Amino acid sequence: MRYLIFVVCLFFGCKGQDSSRSLIHNVGFAQGTSYSIKYMSSEDYHHEIDSLLTVIDYSLSTYNTNSLLSQLNSGDTSLLLDTHFVRVFKASQHISSLSDGLFDCTVAPLVEAWGFGPDDRKEVDSLYIATLLQQVGYHDLWLRGDSLLSNPEQKTMDFNALAQGYTVDVIAELLDSHLVSDYLIELGGELRSKGHNSRNKKWRVGIDKPSNEI
Fold this sequence. Notes:
By secondary structure, the protein is α+β, with helices and mostly antiparallel strands.
């Protein structure tokens, strides 16, 4: 009987938290901002995370002139689309449809004109803005297989409103694939958490300069 109790206690003792795990904190810069990724693991996945960030940058960045998005915006529609571009494009189009166009990835010309893109702000007037608005229209873009089509002319896209949040989700998918069950991911203010911290408590996030204006 004592032997049975010992075996049962040993079994449930092994079900506790893995003592080989420790808090790993990866930090760096990506997508024009900083990132901080904390997770409980016996392995450090910093190199995999950095590689993933590089791949996403070469897909969706408006600042990287060699990115897939930059080349599409320059008029090269012969390029085959990668998984990251397709996922973000579909999400963007879905949100545009739900918002009746209030969200639109083709507002890039306006973003550039007002100085929110890679270039400096331009001198604009109402006539110039009206001209740019004629270049906006998410419904003129669609996918056909691995290619992007547009009608009647090529649109200029900007996925910065989605890219960082999407990247956080993809990093979470990477950690999930390694069976990491406790993590806190932050990239440019976009957050995602799961499980508990090193003290076995829920992750706590502080807000810098919180505002009562909600």
